[in-house]
Design brief:
Elements (H helix, E strand, L loop, with lengths): L9 H20 L10 H11 L13 H16 L6 E2 L3 H18 L3 H9 L4 H21 L8 E2 L2 H4 L1 H15 L8 E2 L2 E2 L12 H18 L3 H11 L5 H18 L16 H18 L3 H9 L3 H19 L13 H18 L6
Antiparallel strand pairs: 1-2, 3-4
Helix pairs in contact: 1-9, 1-11, 2-14, 3-8, 3-9, 3-13, 4-12, 4-14, 4-15, 5-6, 5-11, 6-10, 6-12, 9-13, 10-11, 12-15, 13-14
Amino acid sequence: MQQKNWLATRWGVIGVGAVIGVLAPLLQKLGNPGNMGICVACFERDISGSLGLHRAAVVQYMRPEIIGFVLGSLVAAYLFKEFRPRSGSAPFVRFVLGVFAMIGALVFLGCPWRAVLRLAGGDGNAILGLLGLTFGIWIGTRFLKGGYNLGRSYKTHSSAGWMLPLVMLGFFALMLIFPQVSGQAQSGVLFYSVKGPGAAHAPLVISLVIGLGVGFLAQRSRFCTMGAIRDTVLFGQTHLLGGFIALLVVAFGVNLVLGQFKMGFAGQPVAHTLHVWNFLGMALAGLAFALAGGCPGRQLFLAGEGDGDAAVFVMGMIVGAAFAHNFGLASSPAGLGPHGVAAVVVGFFVCLFIGFTMRKRIA
């Protein structure tokens, strides 16, 4: 008889959300940027910069948390016999969705996880981001109801499922071979920020261990911020929503205890106050996440359990970060990038094109 996975129950998901709500502010206290104890999009952007895919000097660091998410999920999948290598579900479409998900997130300056953590830290701009995220996911649910489908994935070789975990192991090896040198912007093949958000980070070992733990728990619980909103809107199911709310409430409490809560709109860390674009940036990201089937964290956890299509989405986000910074699409605390508006408009056209054209005809 198969043992029940308690972490996948309603209370299990709530527990995982609460754990993340403790760990994320703690990472911030230990050195990660303000209201950015964990931000999947921001951290993948930093990895992109560390590899030299973009040269925005203030956001370059090989974030151990992302590496830990994938490897923690891999360990959980193997321990509980859930490592299932598969791929073949419109991989290039997923790559494109990953690119525009990242562009939308960097117009807002954060992924769904960071939107919740920004709100828990008192940043009122996150309200617009979360409303935009919900709106984008709602559009995605209209497509899902209308027959949108990227097709089925197929069982494949175990080695294919290992590709992204091996890439992450390679990234970690590069960190060990070319460690950060104080005051230097480059160490061997890796780039490191000497100022700005990329220069703010918790100790490597702590970041990696927390990443591994979150990856393990999230794989077991199926924790997904996008899925929480999608399931509530589409099916009226609040199973995942409990984890979303627990993350917000617990992070708020921990921020109060640690003295990290600052209420307001202006002067928030790594944020801007252009409300329309906070809304629309996250609306684009939410639509892309809904069409791809998971938030950026969930995509990392799926890749850890062998999903090659999720791995393609992850690589799309990393490349999307390079596009965003190389072409002036990303925002900064000073406001939108010079081509951020155009990028959001193009992103909506692309995502809507995908949503309208990739539907199964219902007889």
